[in-house]
Write a structure and sequence with these properties.
alpha+beta; five-stranded antiparallel beta sheet; 5 strands; about 30% helix; 4 helices
């Protein structure tokens, strides 16, 4: 059985959530109101799209948005209420010199700065 490669990013109603581990992801999902959201799209650090099936509480590699680009991930984050609330954005410059996993990691870092409540890190 395949699982997403952490960290992952997902979007629900304009809120972007990021997680570095399964435990962190479960905690973030538990804090959201997923009623009315049967499927939530996620992207992992390898640019693979995943569907979270909220009624079954499982991740599936079967999704409409199978491969993500660097620009799509950045645009999703920068347009989110999460970025607006935090007052941050991710630069769209020099994308060709950055690996996809680095971009996902840096976006998760923007949402979870050092010294915050979530210190758990896995690779």
């Amino acid at each position: 059985m395949r699982v997403p490669r952490f960290p992952v990013l997902g979007e629900v109603d304009g809120l972007v959530i990021g997680a570095r581990s399964d435990a962190q992801l479960q905690k973030s999902l538990a804090e959201l109101d997923l009623s009315g959201h049967d499927v939530v799209d996620f992207v992992d650090s390898t640019a693979e799209g995943w569907s979270f099936r909220s009624k079954l509480m499982v991740f599936s590699p079967f999704t409409v948005h199978k491969r993500w680009t660097k620009r799509e991930v950045i645009e999703m984050f920068n347009a989110s209420r999460t970025a607006q609330t935090l007052g941050v954005s991710y630069s769209e410059r020099s994308l060709s010199s950055k690996r996809f996993d680095r971009i996902v990691n840096e976006i998760v870092d923007l949402m979870d700065p050092p010294g915050s409540r979530r210190e758990e890190k896995t690779h």
